[in-house]
Amino acid sequence: MKACNRREFAKTLAFASAAAGLSARASNVNDRVRLGFIGLGNRGDQVLDAFLAQPDAQIVAVCDISQPYLDFAAKKIGTQPRQHKDYRKLLEQKDVDAVVISTPDHWHALQTIHACEAGKDVYVEKPLSLRVAEGRAMATAVRRYGRVCQVGIHRRSVDFCRQAAEFVRAGGIGKVTVARAFHVQNEWPKGIGNPPDADPPADFDWDAWLGPAPKVPYNKNRTFYRFRWFYDYSGGQVTNFGVHYIDFIQWALGQTAPMRVTALGGRFAGIDDNREIPDTLEAVWHYPGDTLVTFSQFNATAAPGSLPGCEVELRGTKGTLYLFGNRFEVVADAITPNEFPARTPTDRAYERRWRQGEQRMIENRKVTGDGDTAHHARNFLHCVKSREPCHCDIETGHRSTSATLIANIALQRGMVLEWDADREQFRNDTEANRLLNCDYRAPYRLPKG
């Protein structure tokens, strides 16, 4: 893929602005939404399955720099969509109403903004961006060009998650003082391995894969899937898994941004690989209303002190809500109307007296469901036709992604950072503010949206 020149690209796609009204709705006789897929790797293949399950999704084009991925997708689709290795060629197709972007994080901003300029609606995978400034430019482009955009934080379309968030916001577990999220995966001792730098395979366009990222020698760990262990392409697990969890927590709290953030961590487990992201991390956010939120990443097989398999827990004054991949559970806490008695060496009956008035103010409950991405795909297609806001619109996706991105900046700076969500700047560290912005490799440039 050749480097992008925004002026030439805009000229090439000049027809798209005139056609924006047409592509704003499914215009073919079957009222189908004609889709182009950009990125068909691990997550791209999963999202492809979600859209193939929709009767009104017609996939007319696919794009990836990997020919085996293109062939695999085309066989699965079965209708011989046009194949591209340069996403700009896909955006030139007049019969594409919307694009689905599942490339590595460092490509999301350019591809989303260029799609908006081309008059396409956009489904873009999470995390939305690599830097906060990218996310804001993407949100600006979506609004400027009047596009529908769904960010792939797919739990926003999952019914049991919606019920859980509404239950918490309605005071179901009382005042939420602490919310915890976990990424638990024992990667010791080899992790992702430690392959040497090498020449790229003959059929692999390494420069195109890097795109706006810095030019570095080819290393297979920096490519498919394992790119998430390197900061040039991803924010690591706090943005990969963590963005799902922080988004749910913000949803349940009725908040869109923290007031401050800090993080500690590093390569503590002695894993023998060439990663950059921590294997051990504790990120902490302080939210308005005084809720402490944590994301814990560590090498283990279970989250300590929580229910097995729990991904998020919210602890309130009346009980605790535990969120899993297919359900949520509420466990009531014991409440007593009595003051906690003073403990004295001569009176060991204090706790019995205190417990005499024990009661539970809420009931235990369990709600099950499924977390299938197909629900999110369904909502996107509906919104492309109706022009309604998506369940995870661009602003929601940007705010939730930003919360995780600033945790990485706090880790890098080794500070407690004060966050001004309105200005999207830190109040107390100029150097941290520089890390909010992009430093693209020439000649790539982030459009202002």
| Count of domain modules | 2
Q: Any idea what the CATH architecture of the largest domain is?
A: 2-Layer Sandwich
Poorly predicted tracts of residues: 6-29
- Please identify which CATH superfamily of the largest domain we are dealing with: Dihydrodipicolinate Reductase, domain 2
Beta content comes to: 15-25%
Task: Tell how many strands the DSSP assignment holds.
Answer: 18
Q: Tell me the CATH topology of the largest domain.
A: Dihydrodipicolinate Reductase, domain 2
Main β-sheet: number of strands, strand sense, barrel status? 10 strands, mixed
Identify the overall geometry.
globular
Rg estimate, integer Å: 24 Å
Determine and state the CATH class of the largest domain: Alpha Beta
Helix content: 25-40%
Mean pLDDT: 92
- Cα(first) to Cα(last) distance is 22 Å
Q: What is the SS-derived class?
A: alpha/beta
Q: Main sheet: which strands, in order across?
A: 16-13-12-11-7-10-9-8-17-18
Count up the helices: 16
How would you portray this structure in words?
With about 450 residues, the protein is of the alpha/beta class. The protein has two domains: about 5-155 and about 375-395, Rossmann fold, CATH 3.40.50.720; about 160-370 and about 405-435, Dihydrodipicolinate Reductase, domain 2, CATH 3.30.360. It is built from 16 helices and 18 strands. The chain has helices at about 5-10, 15-20, 20-25, 40-50, 65-75, 85-90, 105-115, 130-145, 160-170, 205-210, 235-240, 240-255, 350-355, 375-385, 395-415, 430-435; strands at about 35-40, 55-65, 80-85, 100, 120-125, 150, 175-185, 260-265, 280-285, 290-300, 310-315, 320-325, 325-330, 335, 360, 365-370, 415-420, 425. It has a ten-stranded mixed sheet. α4 packs across α14, α7 (about 105-115) runs parallel beside α8 and α12 (about 240-255) packs across α15 (about 395-415). The protein is globular and about 80 Å long. The two termini are about 20 Å apart. The model is unreliable at about 5-30 (pLDDT under 50).
